[in-house]
Amino acid sequence: MPSIDLSGKVAVVTGSGRGLGLAYAHALAAHGASVVVNDVDEAVAEAAVKSITEAGGKAVAEVVPVGTSEAAERLVNRAVEEFGRLDVLVTNAGILRDKVLWKMTDDDFDAVITTHLKGTFTCARAAAVRMREQGEGGSLILVGSPAGQRGNFGQTNYAAAKAGIAAMARTWSMELGRANITVNAIVPVAATAMTETIPAFAPYIEAMRNGEPLPDFLRKGEGFGTPEDCAALVPFLASEAARGITGQAIGIGGDKVALWSHPQEIRAAYADGGWTPGTLADAWPTSVGAELQSVGIPAPKFPEA
């Protein structure tokens, strides 16, 4: 098997005090990268750094909420000041403010968009500037979600942000290709504080915390596992082994890794001289409308009791 060696590389992982972000930071450090851990809680960030250094890795903490240009510059500058360079950015920081459309406030919407979408933009921009100055390439790893790929009930703000992140990955992969900077979106599925609130998953997550393994129908069928199961994708994408992979959305969870398709036309119809509402109504059922697409994240297929 190819060896993934990130010795000499420096990474920033936003929102890496706990959960998936902490798993990404640990995985990068375990493969030799020096890591800037980021969180809004100083105690959580310092505990994350301690866990990485006690495992033999190199890490420092930068406590700042992402979203602003100033926060992005602080993260990049911390990497350069502590370790001399920046090679990898993982934009993991996020929050939830779930409500249905008619109950979602401006503050609910703005908070999620600021952290997820604007936070990804500002951090990626600052990282791209630094990586282009260094002239040695780099890796931007943007964290998406199934909600951004398919939509999810009660998550207008989150789904919109994650869909935008996937679109930014595709766009930036073109813009940064000449600088040898790869840009990919990852779509993790794992037992976290977010997913454990789903009643159907709760008993399995609780059993897992008590030392029981997750059943195969979750690990394989649903691609659902631990944060550590998702972490392997990050050092891989940061490595030379993935240098030719860019502009992709890659899902991972449990025992499963998958490539998501990009949106594309699947059916088309034509009318000489253009369409009218009437000709659209007449042609729709047997042409374009014959293959309407589903929405939402499919419900887990739990075994029969």
From TrEMBL:
Boundaries of every Ketoreductase domain copy: 9-192
Family: Belongs to the short-chain dehydrogenases/reductases (SDR) family.
UniProt xrefs under InterPro entries: KR_dom (IPR057326), NAD(P)-bd_dom_sf (IPR036291), Peroxisomal_Beta-Oxidation (IPR051687), Sc_DH/Rdtase_CS (IPR020904), SDR_fam (IPR002347)
SMART domains documented for this protein: PKS_KR
Record keywords: Oxidoreductase
Protein name per its UniProtKB record: Putative 3-oxoacyl-[acyl-carrier-protein] reductase FabG
Domain of life: Bacteria
Organism: Streptomyces afghaniensis 772
Taxonomic path: Bacteria, Bacillati, Actinomycetota, Actinomycetes, Kitasatosporales
The keyword Oxidoreductase is assigned to this record: yes
Coiled coil: none
One example GO MF annotation: oxidoreductase activity
PROSITE patterns per the UniProt record, alphabetical: ADH_SHORT (PS00061)
